[in-house]
Structures are given as structure tokens and as C-alpha cells.
């Protein structure tokens, strides 16, 4: 299901600023999850928590999350559905049914179950035959891919069952394709994005680079691709980190339900990779009381969004949850404490001189503030007391409060 979320996040930047360039930037500082992700996780919550798979509980899950994330970019009819006292299906044939259905394809034990659950997931809003068909086609594609069916087998089955023309190519579609939110005009293209791919990233690039409703096409294509390919760890970890704790909890519960847990969802491996060559240097420089090298973001991590460099984007921590995971990591947590202890030995010295610049002195304060929130009255508080008169970094605290809302 994370494949759908990745497709949504990557496509979010290009939904209203279409690109036809296959080599577009996968992620930018403006990349975010949208309604596609929120409703996908609503379906996952329904499947996980309601073993009867009732229409009523699905509506409850969708409304609960939809009203929690009101800014996510819902269509007009769906917005009205969210706030109605007694919401009813509104005969939609839009691709909202296909964008949210992917958990069904991973959850179902048979193709018939996938089709039935997809129908239920669609018809609470998208009860038009084309709306139901779009959801069933994506669910079937995910399920069949999970079962190891070849692309030709999947193409033949979906064409026969749903009547879609899947013998086109992305290169053939791209030049003339325009924005289309109908199931008929976007679901086949999402499936072709997978059929015409060679790995996960190429699927997402295919989906987004045709233009159109890029986050939804990306979400549908990404879900199928996840069932076939290994997802790039850096991409998966970054998009996982963009989720709120509430949404992560739903995703994690669903993955446990289908026995598909991930050991390193935040991709903390990125820190280990950089520290392999630089940690010993950083530790020695702190012992010497003089930072001379460039390693601040992956030795003393801070919150993503506080900086503007590429390192701040790659090595910034998503929120307090990722900071907790970092501190509890057997290697990273131990190293953070060790290098922080080495820093404390410089008490009495000018912190700007120790860190090599006023900017890096501020970054250290930011890092210590974050980890003091994660582990109060720990060594991180000692650094704040020793070098910053016990005062936390207000900007970091502001980010944390904003993330907790």
C-alpha cells in the first residue's frame, strides 16, 4: 500500500502543473500526501478493524479521516458527502474509487474477494458502474500481480473483464493525453504505466509524465508496482516520513495484518551509510573541541524543514516519531550519545568556536532540543544547559507543536 502513497506524493506537485518530461524531479520540498493517501488509509483502516467489511464502517472511516485532513484536496461532491448528516452515494464515475482501493488488492485472499471488496469500497460514493469498474480493475491488477501473474496475463485478464484497451504504450499516450478524472480516462493509463515499466521508479515516472491527474494516476500505478517490484528505500522512507503519526499507525496496523512489515520504514540506513566514513572523524573533532568537516545533519540530526540544503532535505528527521526511532536504534542512538558526551567535554569553551560557525552552533541547539523532547532530562538537556543557558531552540519547538496538531 505504500506504493500508492509514494505515487500520490510524487504526483502531488504535478497535478495542477503537469509535466510530460519523463525525467522530472521525483521529490521536491513541495511534495506531500493528498486525499488519495488519506482515503487509501481509510480503506485500510476499514479492512483492518471491521472483519464484516460493512458499508457503514467504511463510511465512518472515510468521514473520520476526511474531516481530520480537510486540506487534502477533495473534489466538490466528495466534500459535500463528508459533511452530510446522512451521506449517500452520488453516482460518481470519477477515479476517486480507484485511487483508494489498493489495500483491497493486498488484503484479499482470492480474486473474487478482491472484486467484492472493491465493489463495496467504491459504491459508498462511486456507485456508477464505471466507478465500480475502475476500483475493481485496480484491485484485480494488484491482486494478480501479487500472485505472480505475468504482465501479459494481467493485460489479457483486465481487457477481457473490464473492456479497457491496454495494448497502448506510455510513449503513445503521452503526447495527446490531457487532464481526465474519470475512471474510464485514467484507470487504464495507470495500469499501462505499470505494464510498460521495468521497475518501481519507471512505473511512477510513466504515470506522472503523461500529465493529467498525476497524483491519482501515480497512486493507482504505484500500488500495482509495489506488488511487482522492490520499492527504492530512500523514496519509501521519505514518503513514510511525510505521513502523520495517525496515518502511519493505520499503515503499520494494515501491514501487520497482511504480514508485510518493514524493519526500517523511515530508512534510517541513510544515516548509517554516511556515518560509515564520517562518524569517527566527527567524534574526534568533538573530542578536539573543533569541528572542521561537513557532517552536521547526519551526526546531530534535526527536523526536516529547518534547513534549505540538500543534506537538510535528505537527512532531516520527519518528526518526533522518527527521532524516537533514531535514538532507540542500537547503533545510531549509541553514537548520538557518544558524540554528545564528547561535545560536553568542551564545556566552558565558546560554542561557536567548537562548532566552527554560528550556523552549526544553532544546528546543534536544534538537534539537542529535538532529542530533549524525545528523552527529557537526558544528556541532551546537559548540552543545552552547558552551552545555551538551558534555552531550547524555539523554531524546533514550534515545528514539533505544529506536527502534533
TrEMBL record:
According to the record, the segments passing through the membrane are none
**UniProt KW Hydrolase keyword:** no
Which cofactors does it use? Mg(2+)
- The answer to whether keyword Signal applies is no
Keyword set for this entry? Magnesium, Metal-binding
Q: Which InterPro entries match?
A: ADP-ribosylglycohydrolase, DUF1810, Ribosyl_crysJ1, Ribosyl_crysJ1_sf, Rv1873-like_sf
Q: Molecular function terms in GO for this entry?
A: metal ion binding
Q: Where does Mg(2+) bind?
A: 34-36, 213, 215-216
Describe cofactor binding as the record notes it. Answer: Binds 2 magnesium ions per subunit.
What Pfam families is this protein classified in?
A: ADP_ribosyl_GH (PF03747), DUF1810 (PF08837)
Please identify the protein, giving its name as recorded.
Answer: ADP-ribosylglycohydrolase
